[in-house]
TrEMBL record, chain A:
This is Putative spermidine/putrescine transport system ATP-binding protein. The keyword ATP-binding applies. The keyword Transferase does not apply. It comes from Azospirillum brasilense. Keywords: ATP-binding, Nucleotide-binding, Transport. It holds the Pfam family TOBE_2. One of its GO terms (cellular component) is ATP-binding cassette (ABC) transporter complex. SMART domains: AAA (SM00382). GO terms for molecular function: ABC-type transporter activity; ATP binding; ATP hydrolysis activity. Belongs to the ABC transporter superfamily. It comes from the Bacteria.
TrEMBL record, chain B:
GO terms for cellular component: outer membrane-bounded periplasmic space. One of its GO terms (molecular function) is thiamine binding. This is Putative spermidine/putrescine transport system substrate-binding protein. GO terms for biological process: polyamine transport; thiamine transport. Gene3D superfamilies: Periplasmic binding protein-like II. Pfam families: SBP_bac_8 (PF13416). It comes from Azospirillum brasilense. PANTHER family: ABC TRANSPORTER SUBSTRATE-BINDING PROTEIN, THIAMINE-BINDING PERIPLASMIC PROTEIN-RELATED. InterPro entries: SBP, Sperm_putr-bd, TAT_signal.
Automatic annotation (TrEMBL), chain C:
It holds the Pfam family BPD_transp_1. InterPro entries: MetI-like, MetI-like_sf. It is found in: Cell membrane. Its main location: membrane. PANTHER family: INNER MEMBRANE ABC TRANSPORTER PERMEASE PROTEIN YDCU-RELATED, INNER MEMBRANE ABC TRANSPORTER PERMEASE PROTEIN YDCU-RELATED-RELATED. GO terms for biological process: transmembrane transport. This is Putative spermidine/putrescine transport system permease protein. The keyword Membrane applies. Belongs to the binding-protein-dependent transport system permease family. CysTW subfamily. Keywords: Cell membrane, Membrane, Transmembrane, Transmembrane helix, Transport.
Amino acid sequence: MSALVLDGLTKRYGPVTAVHGASLRIPHGQFVCLLGPSGCGKTTLLRMIAGLEDPSGGRLVIDGRDITTAPAHTREFGMVFQSLALFPHLTAGENIAYPLRIRGVPKAEQRKRADELLELVRLPGVADRPVSKLSGGQRQRVAIARALALSPKLFLLDEPLSALDAKLREAMQIELKQLQQRLGITTIVVTHDQREAMTMADLVVVMSQGRIHQAAPPMEVYRQPADAFVADFIGMTNLLEGEVTAPGTAAVPGGTLHLPELPPTGRVLLSVRPEDVIVHPAGMDGPNRLTGTLSFMRDLGASVEFRIDVAGKEIVALSRPQDRPPVAPGGALAVEFPPAACVVLPPMAERPQ
Amino acid sequence: MNETTGKQGLHAALTGGIGRRAVLAGAGTLATVAAIGFPNIVRAQSKTLKVGVYGGYFKESFEKHIFPEFSKATGITVEAIAEPTGEAWLVQLEQAARARQAPADVSMMSQVAMLKGASAELWAPFDLSKIPNAAKVVPHLVNKYPDGKVSGIGAVSWYITLVTNTKSYPQAPDSWAALWDPANKDKLGLLALVSNSFLLEVTAATFFGGTKHLDSEQGQLDCFKKLAELKSNVKLWYRDEAQFEASLKSGEIPMGQYYHDVTGLAAADGQPVRSTFPKEGGILDSGSWAVTRASKAGDLAHVFVDYMCQPSIQALLSRKVGTAPTIDRKMTDLTDQEFAAVSSDIAPIIPRYDLYTSKSDWLNQKWTEMIVG
Amino acid sequence: MIRRAPRGLAEHAPILFPALMLVVFFVIPFSLMIAVSVFRRVPGGFYEPDLVFANYERFLTAFFGGVMSFSLGLAALVAALSVGIAFPFTYRLVKLPRRAQIRWLVFLLSILSLSEVIIGFAWSTLLSRTAGITNLFVALGLMAEPQSLSPSFGALLAGLVYQAFPYTVLVLYPALARLDPYLEEAARTLGSSPLRAFFTVVVPALRNTIVATTIMVFVFALGSYLLPQLLGRPQHWTLSVLITDQAIYQSNMPFAAAMAVFLVLVSLALVGLALLAGRREETA
């Protein structure tokens, strides 16, 4: 099966390295999100794929063909820019038909295709409107339609929804995903919004400081983060530093935990999602429990959030309202870390942030 | 070099030909205009004479070499007024005279301006009995009203001659006819205006027996027709003297018409240029002293003009300012060399200033069509 | 939002100053010029107030028609060339690092400070036989012997374009600097080569700026009267040269004014036509 293969793609700007040897294999029809904080190199990586930046090293191969140095206009990828980059001198329809016009497609056919695409993005009847007369959401759809006009092999989007308000953004995320599924087109979206990535992606690629930390399906990224950065960046987590003292036993601040997957020796880092931490009233003994003091508590309606001080380390726990122990801030509590919920991460050499 | 460029300004100012420098100097006009508006401030000293001379090089030279000597000799203080260029000064004098004002008592005027002023009877007639030295001035430099009264007396004169680059022309040409020589294709630099190049007069003198040929319209048309023949020889019709002077020195434009004294100074500087008086004569242009009828200092003006006409002063002007004497050279103590630097014994071609008053628009139109067309 | 029209002096105050400036620096001088253009020329003198159209009649001849067409044609050519060169130049300029941009802009501003006369002299020297560029060509073996390239139409054109170029760049600069750089990239991802993207997206997106700049350079070139004298032959003298001749050398203010009024009206008409054509194109 053919695919898009990134093999050690690197981009340097003088002494600064924006992307360090990014390697990735993207099968056909996948929806990929490049996710990371701003400045992590995700946009540079996307631009290298689009042909808008020349890689300083590495190779880019699609369907077995090396396109590392192919100019952008020969790649036939559709791209949606963060600014949308709609041509201000053209109408919505002309914008969409632009790639067809460039290829000398007859006018009537251009028009027909533009109408089809507007239909596809659920924006019929605006073909003759100048883009300045369209709303933000409408422009978004025109930009998407334009990028899809040539039925490209690859559909690239650079923070496509960042200009929209929260509600519209949610709706567009779902719509974009549905559109991608309908067309079965390999899609790569750059975003810094993990919720957006989780909503849309088949494959989330978490990046930081120019490196790919993890490339995996959303749930795997969440449940099995590859390292402390991913665990911390995707959702909220409790990171516990510990030391293996005996096989299957780790000493952490405030006590010891018994976990089956521990390495035989050395320092370890454990990640436990707040919703996996179980809160018990003080004095109720059991395995993998640490005792602490409730420092803060808030009721979020669907859940209750506890912040518990365990030997100077703050542990966050979420529990259902009905499971809430009768305790007030300042009171003692026990927190349980179920072994199945503890992810053992490689110890942090330096904590990326 | 400074002196040379300054002189171009002088010539341009008096011929009514205006270089760029003069246009810039036109800002001075505004100040003068503004000054006229005010009532005449009562003069503290009765023995003060306001003398209008062209601003820049000319005024500086007069203030340095002439006016102090004059004041010492006569006890009359001179207030030098910088005249604007072109005919603006004439217009100002006319308007001021209507209000019985005199921005200057005596002014140096171009010959065309003299004639125009005379037609409006702007000039107070001179009493020659009070100007004994006027008798020495050559007759064609004395301006007269139709009834014979004297309206102006020659102040300064200078020659425009045939100039060549000595490297391009080892042999000096001896006739204005050289301008028409087919061998000189694309080699000439000539003045761009009918009223400052005086090429109609040159044509008449060279091919039609003299400037009298320009009396009739047919004669004028003859000259235009003849002149049109040299068009293909002309590389540059110049308004800016500095441009032609630089091109002449470099040999880019190796032949043309230019000021005799300026060319002489350049040659003395070691530049490969020469000025030649053709056998038909150099073009003698001049400026005259004239007194506005609104002036109340007529007596002092007479003393001034008489002083200026003295042979010693004319010689001084030749040496220091580079003008040709307005009187017979024999009366001056100029050496042959000094005289040759500013003038020649060959009879001059005297411009037909009358034409530039009576037919100026027509001549200008014909001229422009001739060279542009 | 409906706005009440301003009432009273106080509410009109904000526009009083610009209005005053417009009146003082444009309306009054232009009215004076129109007035003078119908005054009677006094041969040998100046002019007297009158209402005659002789000055316009004199102008309406084949000769002046020829000069006028040449002037307009020259100005149009200068405008087209200046914008044609300055637009791609500025397009590259705005993509340079900030420091390099500033260096270029300072350099261009320093050209602006050169007077027309210095530009004229520099070009006539550069194109001269004795000291000009052809000597370099001879030294390089490209030419047999040095040639004089000035005065000529080409020299005049070069001088005028050189003079107009910095203005053109400075007028184009803000619009090009503001242009979304992703427009061109978008065109490239849609299948346009960089050159094609430039012509199908960048140029049309800035059409209004280009039209306005072209008109500005056109008017600028139309007013040039020194360079045609320094770098052109008489047949290349523009109407502005003849106006100067009449105003300064012939002291014929009425005729000069009539020509100037005519020139202003024809320029305004052409500019209006250009704008009209542009608008029609837009709505089409």
